[in-house]
Amino acid sequence: MAGRRIIWRSFLCAGASLAFFLAPALAARQNQSSTPTPPSQSSGAIADARSALAHGDADDAIQVLSSYLQSRPKDTVARVLLGEAYSSRGQNDRAEQELQTVLQSRPDDYTALAALGEIYEREGQPEKAEPMLARAAKAGQGNPQIQIEWAVVLARLHRYKEAQSALARVSPPNPPQERLAFHRLKASVALGVANPSGAAAEMEKALALDPTDAKLVMATAVAELQSKNWQRAATLAEPLFSRTHDPQIGLVCLEAQLAMHVDYHQTLELLRSTQLAATTESAFRQRLGELLISQGDFSDAVEDVRAAADLDPNRPESQFNLALVQFRAGLFDDALASANRCKELGDSAEIEDLFGDIQEARGDNLAAVKSYQTAVTLAPNEEKYRLSLAVEFIRHENFDAAKLVLKQAEKLQPRSWRIQVMLGMVEYFAGTDEEATRYLLRAAELAPEPEGALKYLGDIQVDRPAAPDPDAVAKLCEYSDRQPKEGHMQFYCGALLFRQESAPGDKTHSGEFLRRLHAAAGLLPKDAAPHCQLGKAYRWLGQWQEALGESQICARMDPDSAEAHYRLAQIYEHAGQREQKQKEIKLYEAAAARVADENARREATMKTFLYNLQRDQPDPK
């Protein structure tokens, strides 16, 4: 239907991935040994071997240590060092053999565990490295080098909460490059635990260590973008893009400008003029379109989505995206042509559903119905296409046809809350409140988040001429008790309890509905309805001063409420204020002339219902 969500495939996305922060941290860690150097016995051979390794002479270190271990085979420090020497030569099998020898006699030797974990990490086996580093971290009692290396591996395994715990008590290392890598690692972990502001803060710390590094500036701008600090992202990205014309930083710059609602066209034109390889240009233009669409700039997006489609004309997804963005931009004839090209590459229910939207927008109701019916035929088990067809019938007030479609859908998916909501609303539009109530109550039972169905139910119960349905009142009040901060539910419960009690004239429980209506007024400060109901309730209770105050608020917030002006006229008559009464009578008569009858109110509700569906069509999957 017309309000479907646009789901674009992301290419060359400027939004940061975790690896964007993590990769430099990994590189920095892997350029140094993570194995700590514990206090050990003084040995000239060990000192010589360390010196040789420090100068990059692994062969000399291996020779010295092998000779030394012939006479001192139980020296674990020397054997761990020999393992590291073999590892630096790329002889990981020999290195692992030496380290496993140490662990056979000293299973908690954290230097050997850490060295073995680092070997596995370098081999690209983080799942083998992690348990070794976990044991090393435990045995090393918080050794910072091991904790950092362990956190790196945990991050690579996407175990970010554990990585965060591993780094919790670790101070940044002193050497600048290690400190920089540490902050980038923490940024990666923060992003992994859904803390973009924490990631941005860590990237700012890294940037402070090397503010001229263009890649670091870009990474920090991306982090600020993800934390929605648009101004800071733009401040970092704009000068870098002006200097380098790097399309990646340009995308960051554009996204920040779009989010700030400032003029972005210069940046957009520079990006459009970027020379790219043919293999990446289509994806890049699609990404430009995606950014524009994310801010509702459909007209601007058409050019880029069309360019992407022209560069890859045989790709159905590109043609579909073009038809969709043209439709959203109001270019219905262009959208129809693009949809036809997409269909030539292969028909599908999704394409036919879009055809229905386009034809409806062009005013061709019969063609729209045909397309929606074809979508149902192509995907008979997907409820969204049946819902689109039903909405088309509702839009043109063909409620019997809509019910038929929805009843067929209900047989296929009897536990679909969306189908139950639609059935309830069709019954309401057709004038059958009792059936509408039954369906909406069932929808509320089935829905994981029942609030939407309950709001429709509440509106119907408040507006219906007959007494409210007891089951509906109970359900709404039950939900309001579970969600005391949800103002609409407090209003529905209070208003309906008042209607229940006012019918037989029982005033003994008035405190309950007054409490709920006052709560709703506090939770919904811009909504006149709670005050209108309070004015009505206080008038019924004979509390004239309170009724006057609430009714005045109601009329001020909703000057078109004929009922509010009529009630004020009654109150002023009771108070003997004839002039005020006459004024309110005139306002009442003017408002009454504009008041819709019952059918018009249902039509207004239908328009609101359809608008909400168009604005945010739920994904039924």
In total, the number of strands is: 0
Distance between the first and last residues' Cα = 16 Å
Task: List low-pLDDT spans.
Answer: 1-20, 25-35, 37-42, 617-621
Structural class, judged by helices and strands? Answer: mainly alpha
Radius of gyration: 35 Å
**What's the average pLDDT?**
88
Largest sheet: none
What amount of the residues lies in strands?
under 5%
| Share in helix | over 70%
The helix count comes to: 34
- Taken from the alpha-carbon principal axes, the silhouette is elongated
Explained architecture:
The model is unreliable at 1-20, 25-35, 37-42 and 617-621 (pLDDT under 50). This protein is 74% helix and 0% strand. With 621 residues, the protein is mostly helical. The longest helix has 18 residues, at 598-615. The chain is elongated and about 110 Å long.
Comma- or semicolon-separated keywords:
74% helix, 621 residues, disordered N terminus, mainly alpha, elongated, 34 helices, disordered C terminus
Task: Give a concise summary.
The chain has 621 residues and is mainly α. The protein is 74% helix and 0% strand.
Layout of secondary structure:
Elements: H1 18-30, H2 44-54, H3 58-71, H4 76-88, H5 92-105, H6 110-122, H7 126-139, H8 144-156, H9 160-166, H10 176-192, H11 196-209, H12 214-226, H13 230-244, H14 247-260, H15 265-272, H16 278-294, H17 298-311, H18 316-328, H19 332-344, H20 349-361, H21 365-378, H22 383-395, H23 399-412, H24 417-429, H25 433-446, H26 451-463, H27 470-482, H28 487-502, H29 510-523, H30 529-541, H31 544-557, H32 562-574, H33 578-594, H34 598-615
Helix pairs in contact: 1-8, 1-10, 2-3, 2-4, 3-4, 4-5, 4-6, 5-6, 6-7, 7-8, 8-9, 8-10, 9-10, 10-11, 11-12, 12-13, 12-14, 13-14, 14-15, 16-17, 17-18, 18-19, 18-20, 19-20, 20-21, 21-22, 22-23, 23-24, 24-25, 25-26, 26-27, 26-28, 27-28, 28-29, 28-30, 29-30, 30-31, 31-32, 32-33
